[in-house]
């Protein structure tokens, strides 16, 4: 779901049981269910109740009966209760909970810059446990989070409050309908002019071969988010920090290249190569409908999402084919950026490992609950349960060989893919051939190798305080420019003015000072 930051802070949905917690910061425990045979290592004694608050609501299945979660609790001697908080209003809700002392014991949230800054701000105000204090209690986790990786996430006050959930499964990218290229006799675009021509023909010709010209779109946006088809040629991420030629950090949305990209997006909308009604799209509506109804040729997404979309597309267009597109750079741009991703290390084969979410621990949890939290964190780092599900149910094992008995959809519904794991996930790729069609596996590998790593994950006081307002203002003004309500020059001048008024310059200075300090 890449999920990397966009203007609206959308994240990939996360899965767990849809069970609203009845109380927050836990103070006691209950008797654990009998441990399964062969689980002699399961801790004895009362099982502490741990409340986990998740940003995002899982809508693809019933989480109230979750065999992976049940197995997880048995093996760690814990009772886990879950609160899911919708993306819309999440900031207000979690802030209110922390301010009122009713926040969950554990917070699981998204990876966008704004949310990470907000969570770190809770830590700086004494509301979160320092992960550096917990790591010695989690030897398996500590092996994965070496000093170099920890430095990526240390907050402005010098403390580590969050741990990322590793993701070894593909990242965001720009995708193109290969069958549309074939239908129109076009080649994969290698220059910016060829790219524009492909988008134009996708929108004006008959790429889907339904006998009608002009009933499709070249690309799709989602309000002023999902702008990657327009941003990619100009080498800028949607909303993130990027390096300049002199090794400084600059917020992508204030760069000259971003201005050019916004102008290009405006051209595409004006020419109806992108649906002018994009400003009315809502989450999971509009963009996704165009993609799944086979009405758009180029779009941004993550490999898993693209696979799900393709399955629906192929119900009506069996020969449809979607591949990762390395968008050609515009003139004067050294390299295009099809996607930025949360890549935090390379695995033993040199392939990127990123992260899909973050974890934090409430500072008010008692010792019993804290022990349970460190136990489940450490368990997820070493146990295959979080990758392939329940032995005997989702897979069988002979020696070191695994045979999966369910498809990926089933594993997702059991919560057995990448949501829970705290530490290393390098084993995930070995199951790609079992879980994904060959074409999807290829796309996953291509997105991982072509995605640009984010430069920083840390925050600063002004970032924490201002970034939400900055990105909201960018959303407002860029939407007006792209939709044609405001001219590019006037709209951009107003944006530069608002960026300064919202302390964007102060934020940039703080980030660069911190970045320079870390580099020493």
Automatic annotation (TrEMBL):
Gene3D superfamilies: Periplasmic binding protein-like II. This is Extracellular solute-binding protein. It comes from the Bacteria. Keywords: Cell membrane, Lipoprotein, Membrane, Palmitate, Signal. Coiled coil: none annotated. It comes from Paenibacillus radicis (ex Xue et al. 2023). Residues 25-47 are annotated as: Disordered. PROSITE patterns: PROKAR_LIPOPROTEIN. It holds the Pfam family SBP_bac_8. Residues 1-27 form the signal peptide.
